[in-house]
From TrEMBL:
SUPFAM superfamilies: C-type lectin-like
Descriptive protein name: C-type lectin
Species of provenance: Penaeus monodon
UniProt keyword annotations, A-Z: Lectin, Secreted, Signal
PROSITE patterns: C_TYPE_LECTIN_2 (PS50041)
Signal sequence coordinates: 1-16
GO MF annotation list: carbohydrate binding; growth factor activity
PANTHER family, alphabetized: C-TYPE LECTIN DOMAIN FAMILY 11 MEMBER A, TETRANECTIN-RELATED
Domain C-type lectin residue range list: 108-236
Pfam families, sorted: Lectin_C
Length: 239
């Protein structure tokens, strides 16, 4: 409504500025000078107010669009928070279940493990023994888990280094291709494998030594050894 009022005022100002008594014989140049004479200060002010009002309307429209966009973003954020909370509640019991080891097993490197220190069995018999208690020989892939296993084995064995310890690696299928019983490739080199006679890197036993052991005389670093050797099983729950 304000726009129409201002426009009417401008037209009235223009009409008032026209000369009266023009007839059909009026000089064209005189008529042009009359119609194109400078606008009055009142018309200029009205035009400025009209432009200002137009900018205010556009600004109000932009603010409304921004408010609607912000509301939409808030709705999306609330929806994502609901999804996050639902996933957190679902994963929490699973994480708690993984960290609760039973039946003498202890949490070592994120897995439930049990060193059967009083058992001395071959590698194959050690697997069977672990399977009978719902586990299998231990495996690992990273240095952090390996370090946790070494700490656990040394703690259970005590200072006298009572027994070497079987883990679940072998190259019995393809010579010198060492894999875990899970089918994954075993890590090679330092810090996992030890040395024989202080200089020969393990594994080095050839076709006569196809099973992996944490060797007590080399600070429990891995060695390859005959699978018929008698050692203590390190059992791990793999699920």
């Amino acid at each position: 409504m304000a726009l129409f009022v201002l426009l009417a005022a401008m037209l009235a100002g223009v009409a008032a500025s026209l000369p009266s008594g023009l007839d059909e014989k009026a000089d064209v140049s005189t008529l042009q000078r009359s119609l194109l004479s400078p606008l009055s200060s009142e018309c200029v002010n009205n035009l400025a107010e009209l432009l200002l009002l137009r900018q205010e309307v556009k600004l109000a429209e932009a603010v409304e669009v921004g408010r609607e966009s912000l509301s939409g973003l808030n709705d999306i954020g609330a929806y994502l928070r609901e999804i996050r909370d639902a996933l957190t509640q679902r994963e929490a019991p699973q994480e708690e279940e993984r960290t609760q080891c039973t039946g003498g097993f202890r949490l070592v490197g994120g897995k439930c493990m049990l060193l059967l220190l009083n058992e001395r069995k071959t590698w194959g018999d050690s697997r069977i023994h672990c399977q009978q208690i719902g586990a299998d020989l231990a495996t690992f892939q990273d240095a952090g888990t390996f370090a946790a296993i070494l700490d656990y084995v040394k703690e259970i064995n005590g200072p006298d280094k009572g027994a070497s310890v079987w883990v679940g690696g072998s190259d019995g299928v393809v010579e010198d291709v060492w894999t875990w019983l899970t089918g994954e490739y075993m890590p090679r080199g330092s810090p996992f494998w030890g040395t024989r006679n202080n200089y020969t890197p393990e594994p080095s036993g050839g076709t006569n030594e196809n099973c992996s052991i944490l060797y007590k005389t080399d600070y429990y670093y891995m060695h390859d050894i005959s699978c018929t050797f008698a050692a203590a099983p390190l059992c791990m729950k793999h699920n």
